[in-house]
Specification:
- This protein is of the alpha+beta class.
- It contains 20 helices and 34 strands.
- The strands form nine sheets. Strands 7, 8, 9, 11, 12, 13, 15 and 16 form an eight-stranded antiparallel beta sheet that branches.
- Strand 33 (627-630) and strand 34 (633-636) form a beta hairpin.
- The longest helix is centred in the last third of the chain and has 21 residues, at 438-458.
- The radius of gyration is 39 Å and the shape is elongated.
- It starts with a strand and ends with a helix.
- The mean pLDDT is 91.
- Bound molecules: guanosine-5'-triphosphate and magnesium ion (MG).
Length: 643
């Protein structure tokens, strides 16, 4: 069954509430203040049974400009609008403003009702009709029927009911994304029942006993009772005016503007990427960073608009923007919004949300603007790809993908299956259906292999590195989560790119039995340097003593031995054993103490070395600050400092 909600719209005092009362028998002005002042303040609700027997929900909104925020809340979610214009007054400011709001909210169907015809004559009515027609030009109501009525005499009401039935029959059932969502427009308590919330059920369905959540505060609650058109029901569906009794929920914690939804379905956000249209009637251009009122669903928040693709925005222009919200909202991609200026509060534009959890963007970035085009009008696959890229290293779960792309749950499942098999996405967590872009996953795989490779180079004696340690490093440095890490390791293992033994990861080519050979090689090198004393071989001379396959191992080993301290690097080409250097250092110190000043000739005489070895060694001792080079000779550095 198609469920339909019809809403009123129009200037204050034009007869909206009187009309609904005449049609439904229900006086939707319930408040004492409303009765006293004769105006509507809060939203009113009723149901209307059509000639064919079906029942539709009715939302009556206030016309006064001070209560526009209530009007926007009431109008979001309606399928059909009754634009009420009093024939004695004709088109007034809120006639236009409400019309704009309905247009911006994406309402597609409606009827114009000219009320109070008992107060005007035929000629006047004709003038008003022409005036009305001119403001409807180019809007969704351009071809809508115009029905003159009097709520006092009852003239025209029958024709109106027929027009409503016809329009209701033409309402297309909107594609349902499958997520239960109800933006709350009223909260109250009933003795013995506790907290009740009401709203138009946007999408999905809800049943008795179900676990739900209130966003953006993320409060858990249980459905104790459901009413539709004042009747208790087991389940409510998209498009129905619904009252819900929540179990275990304090009334004070909920307010209009909150959203009741499936548990875990939504996420609070402080930034929204949107396509924004500045209304044609605006006299002023929209400037970057303007503070505005953003209305969406039943909520209103203050927000700063960041124009991403232009310096300022003129009337009729459409642009890519990001809103920075003063209070967080829980919305979905595809949701419509209305923007009103801060002061005076006037409707100036609106549009549609294209990402609910974006990062801060750089203005005029080609990449960002390309993403906007995709999120606005791309294929499902392109949209999912863009959001997966934005979601980053740990991916995003399927539910949140639905929220962030506006693609329905069923369609999303099909889309993901396709992307899994074409290697564009990968499932990283089966339980919550968490998905990651394949490219990002591949980067993690590469990073792991690279880490192991580096580790082997630096630690040729070790079999491999600890899996847990690598996981911690990747988590710390790249934010890689546990699940995706283990999937990447498993995947690499099955592709035979790494070997996992117990808690160790190594490359398949890394021969564990090298251990013994390497140890032997190390001993050999050590002996060569010990025997070499003050005249060790150069790197090349050393390499020549071994086979060519061992070359790479030797330079690795030398590096390790230097790092460990057994060998001392004196110049790029000369290494000495630690013992040799220590002994030499002692002798040199003695000489320095004895002579005070030591020349190269003195050093050569002491060691019996040629310049080739003497100079690098003397420079080495300068470097480690044993000596200070003063012109032609060296002095002991410590001694000089004492002086
Ligand atoms: N003569 C005559 N008076 C009407 C008709 N419809 C409404 N009225 C009167 O107009 C006044 C305003 O009517 P409402 O229905 O409260 O107007 P409204 O559009 O709901 O006003 P807000 O909700 O405050 O915007 C009331 O005094 C009604 O009795 C009509 O068809 N003929
Ligand atoms: Mg009213």
């Amino acid at each position: 069954v198609k469920h339909i909600v019809m809403g009123t719209a129009g200037h204050v005092d034009h007869g909206k509430t009187a009309l609904i009362k005449r049609l439904t028998g229900i006086d939707t002005d319930r408040l004492k203040e409303e009765k006293e002042r004769g105006i509507t303040i809060e939203l009113g609700f009723a149901s209307l049974t059509l000639p064919g027997g079906s029942t539709i929900g009715v939302v009556d909104v206030p016309g006064h400009e001070r209560f526009i925020r209530n009007m926007v809340a009431g109008a979001s979610g309606i399928d059909l609008v009754i634009l009420v214009i009093a024939s004695d007054e004709g088109v007034m400011p809120q006639t236009r403003e409400h019309l704009h709001i309905c247009e911006l909210l994406g309402i597609r169907r409606g009827i114009i009702v000219l009320t109070k015809i008992d107060k005007v004559d035929e000629d006047w009515l004709e003038l008003v009709r022409e005036d009305v027609q001119s403001i409807l030009e180019g809007t969704f109501l351009a071809d809508a029927p115009i029905v003159p009525v009097s709520s006092v005499t009852g003239v025209g009401l029958q024709q109106l009911l027929i027009a409503i039935s016809k329009a209701a029959a033409e309402v297309q059932e909107s594609a349902d994304n499958g997520i239960f969502r109800l933006p709350i427009d009223r909260v109250f308590t009933i003795k013995g029942f506790g907290t009740i919330v009401t709203g138009t059920l946007f999408s999905g369905k809800v049943s008795l006993g179900e676990e739900v959540e209130i966003f953006p505060a993320c409060l858990r609650a249980k459905i104790r009772g459901i009413q539709v058109h004042n009747k208790a029901v087991e389940m409510a569906e998209a498009g129905q005016r619904t009252a819900i009794n929540l179990q275990g929920m304090n009334r004070e914690l909920i307010a209009r503007g909150d959203v009741l939804a499936n548990y875990g379905a939504l996420e609070a956000s402080n930034r929204l990427d949107c396509i924004y249209r500045h209304l044609p009637g605006n006299s002023r251009k929209m400037k970057n960073r303007t503070l505005v009122r953003l209305h969406t669903g039943t909520s209103e928040v203050m927000a700063r608009i960041i124009l991403l693709d232009r310096e300022e925005q003129g009337p009729k222009e459409e642009s890519c923007v990001q809103f920075i919200l003063e209070n967080s909202l829980a919305v979905m991609v595809g949701d419509r919004f209305v923007i009103r200026s801060y002061s005076p509060a006037m409707t100036i534009g609106g549009g549609v949300i294209v990402d609910t959890l974006p990062e801060k963007h750089k203005r005029f970035s080609v990449d960002v603007l390309r993403d906007f085009q995709i999120l606005k009008g791309g294929s499902n696959e392109e949209k999912v790809e863009t959001i997966l890229a934005r979601a980053g290293i740990n991916g995003i779960n399927e539910k949140k993908l639905v929220v962030r792309t506006g693609i329905s749950c069923c369609e999303m499942r099909r889309q993901l299956e396709k992307m899994f098999s074409s290697k564009k996405a990968i499932l990283v967590d089966k339980d919550e259906v968490r998905v990651c872009a394949y490219q990002i996953f591949e980067n993690i795989r590469e990073k792991i292999v690279h880490c192991v490779k580096i580790y082997h180079e630096q630690n040729p004696f070790r079999e491999g590195l600890s899996k847990e340690e690598m996981r911690k490093t990747l988590e710390r440095e790249n934010g890689v989560g546990q699940k995706i890490f283990s999937i990447a390791v498993q995947d690499l293992e099955s592709c035979n790119e790494i070997v996992v033994e117990k808690d160790m990861i190594r490359l398949p080519g890394h021969r564990v039995n090298l251990h013994g050979e390497m140890e032997q090689l190390r001993k050999d090198i050590s002996t060569i340097y010990c025997n070499g004393g003050l005249t060790p071989p150069t790197m090349q001379e050393l390499q020549e003593q071994f086979s060519s396959e061992q070359k790479k191992d030797i330079s690795n080993l030398i590096q390790i031995m230097i790092r460990e301290g057994g060998l001392i690097r004196v110049s790029t080409d000369l290494n000495f054993s630690r013992n040799t250097i220590e002994k030499l250092s002692e002798e040199y110190s003695h000489l320095l103490l004895k002579k005070g000043k030591v020349t190269v000739a003195d050093f050569k005489e002491m060691t019996g070395l040629s310049r080739k070895h003497s100079i690098p060694l003397m420079e080495y001792f300068d470097l480690i600050k044993l000596t200070l080079w003063v012109g032609d000779y060296r002095i002991m550095r410590n001694k000089k400092e004492i002086n």
